[in-house]
Amino acid sequence: MARARHAHRRTAKLSGAFVKDMLRAWRRNWKRFVSLAVISMLGVAVLTGIYAGCRDMFQGADRFFDAQRLYDIQVVSTLGLTDDDVAALKAVDGVLSVQAERSASATVKVDGSDESVTLSEIGVDGMNQPYLQQGRLPKRFGEAAVTRKFVRDSGLSIGDTLTVAPKSSGTSSKSADDTADGTASTNGTESENDAPQFPTKLTITGIVLDPLDLQNPDGYSQGAFRSSATAEYTFFLPSDGITGSTYTAISLELDDTAALDTFSDSYDAAVRTVRDRIEHHVQSKRQKARRQQLIDDAKQHIEDARRQANTQFTDVQRVQINAQFDEQESKIESDIPQVRWYVNTRSSAGTFSSLKSDLSSIESIGRAFPIVFLLVAVFMSLTAMTRMVEEERGLIGTYMGLGFGPATIASRYVLFAILACLIGGGLGDLIGFLGIPAFLLIVLEGMYVVPNVTMLYDWVYGSAGVALFVLGIGAATIAACWGEVRQTPAALMRPKAPKAGSRVLLEYIGPVWRRMKFLNKVTARNLFRFKGRLFMTIGGVAGCTALIVCGLVINDTVDALPSTQYQDIYRYQLMVVTDHDQLDSVRQKLEDNAQVDLAGNAGTLAKVESGELTNAAEESETVQLITVPKADNLSAIADLRNVDGGKPIDLGKLAGSNGGVVVSQSAANALNVHAGDAITLENGDAERESVRVVAVSESVIGSDVYLTADYYSHVFGADTKAGSDDASTDTVTNGVDMNTIFAQYQGSDDNQIDYADQLANDADVLNVVSTADMQRSFSFDLMGAVVALIVALAGALALVVLFTLANTNVSERVREMATLKVLGFYDGEVHKYVNREMLLLTLMGIAVGLPLGRWIGGLLTSALNMPGLYFAVTVRWTSYAIAAAVTLVFALLVQLFTNPVLDRIDPVSSLKSVE
């Protein structure tokens, strides 16, 4: 019993000494500690930083939408909405509040040309409120708030007055510049008293941000891949003075959705549930009731006119007039079309889907890269900690002989690694939740305007990121200790037997081996003798090189997009959009320019309008509908090739008698649409119909959908009624009004751009697209910023990895270097002897990392689903050269740090040590 108590006291005393010795050992290995901490810091920063930047923008947008009370569901109708519709929607289970809204289409003069504008009533119930940026919101009749985009384009400011011209409401079709924005032009079946009437002379009182359009008008352009054929502005007016009992939209706010993340699946599910109730239980009844109301109103108007006529005319005249009234009454049923409701969600609201898609794609990159960082960190920690344990073999044996258990001994190394990870991870969280998001938000704010975005710390994600690296590096450290602590104390206290020499493959190649110098043979044997060091070094260098290549692959892919689209795919140089009635006049102006080629198919006409594509999963994206007179005309617009094999697409043969559409790859990839799928297509008149996809065409920029006039009229109906004056001209095909001219331009790119600018100022021209200008102005700075960030972090990781490997290499070969010095080697020769091996291993790592980076880059780009962009992988040879050069430069830089360490090796003391 007394001996046990004595042993207990002795163990306690030794425990204190054990701790002191452990701390001294940690201090001696500060370089390893810093290496592990920096690797953890970089890994956690990448893991949390890109995620945090995107999440901060997501949460900022969610708060903004909630503050402005953006609708959860919005209902629009082809023939307007009434108070009865409002009451029916308010009674739906799950609907919290309802707001009826009125809007109208008009035109406004901007820089001498007529531009489309939507006059929108500011809702009296507080939903869809514009965000005031400057000035004040309008309160009285004749006042309006405008967007910063309009102020920039028009040159007007607060206090200025302007005049808008209401568009004709006598037909059901819209001109080309109307987009599917949730507004509806008043239809000829509505009386002037029913249709919304807005003031035409307006005074600007404020500049506002439209919650449906968050694109930054003052930032860098996204127009090269997110442009429609037309531009549109929105003016916000108070209810004061706006007349009309018919509404153009009804917005709905749902129960409990404000507490949900608007970008989450739970929010989508909650909205989908209520939308299904509307579509299944309300929509059909109200459509029929609205049409019957219009029929009854029309009949009542005829009866009122009949009674008035009967009191004013003779009997003979009354007979003729009554016959006319009878004929009109008999046509009412056929003249009034069926009412169509469209139940929209936030995903169809302006820039909502593009913001969500952009951020989600960047987030996917942020989830992939940390995996490579983690693997490299595990490799390096295993290498560093294995060497640290081997250096203390004798000490470990001594502690085991004194009765310390394997867990206690291993703890001195595991705690060392974990502490390095915790410190590095903590610094990584600071960089990840402050530094990187601040950088990304600067770039994001150049694309989108989201007020009051703040950087927040996510305790769960931040702690999980640190824990991931702690577990990975901790497991590697335990693996490094495991082989040593299982041995007996006697075996550990004896010097470890040197690794047996073996012949390398190169020795069997006699002519080569015999001509090698002695030191080169030693180098070759050393490389393959220590296979653990070989694989760790090659793996670490390859991982860093692969990260650099991967970033450059994404950069090259983005850089190649404009030339691929605007030179290889598009065959036109100018796309001129006008009103159908002005098409002949604009075409004559183009013919007057000798450099514009309109001969044959070079001057193809088409109908171009903005629309929306919805897949089977009810995911939507904005697209550009291009309707050509015949399938043969497509060859003058684009070189359409099937994504499956690259064969030319013949729409006439593929569609056959059933018809169909061709969807560009950039749009199809974002929505997972394939040939043979049935999709819902919305045209510029907000009409939605199901269509068949007959092919997906190769495309990298833009979301184009191609179809023929015959199929368009079959699906959506004709724009021009049969028998009208222009129904048989070349500007109208199968009742479809053409509004666009695709033309070739023979001059230089500079002349082409100048001519396009001249056309844009023409009052008859709505919009002009110059492919040369689009190619020059293409910019995707968000992806460029992320690539720059990745390359910088990968380069820093490569530097740390090479330093760790070089330091480990020197520390485990001190006796060997001392022996060389005793044999008379000069310092420079020792440097060359050691650095040659490290350089060869670096080259091997580069050779492995280059194709690995190309492969990883291909996986990442294929996973990026962005509307308007398809990332067809392209890699320049210079990118491989840059990645290899950067890694080599870092390797040479590390030599500058390791050479002084070699110089300080004392031959005598080093040879006395036991390794």
UniProtKB/TrEMBL annotation:
Cellular component terms per the entry's GO annotation: plasma membrane
InterPro entries linked to this entry: ABC3_permease_C, Membrane_comp_ABC_pdt
Source taxon at top rank: Bacteria
The UniProt record lists the keyword Cell membrane: yes
ABC3 transporter permease C-terminal domain: residues covered: 368-478, 789-894
Predominant subcellular localization, coarse grouping: membrane
Residue runs in coiled coils: none
Localization in the cell: Cell membrane
Membrane-protein topology: Multi-pass membrane protein
Region Disordered, residue ranges: 162-200
Pfam families: FtsX
Membrane-spanning residues: 33-53, 365-385, 413-444, 464-485, 534-554, 782-805, 838-857, 877-897
Keywords from the named record: Cell membrane, Membrane, Transmembrane, Transmembrane helix
Protein's UniProt name: ABC transporter
Organism: Bifidobacterium cebidarum
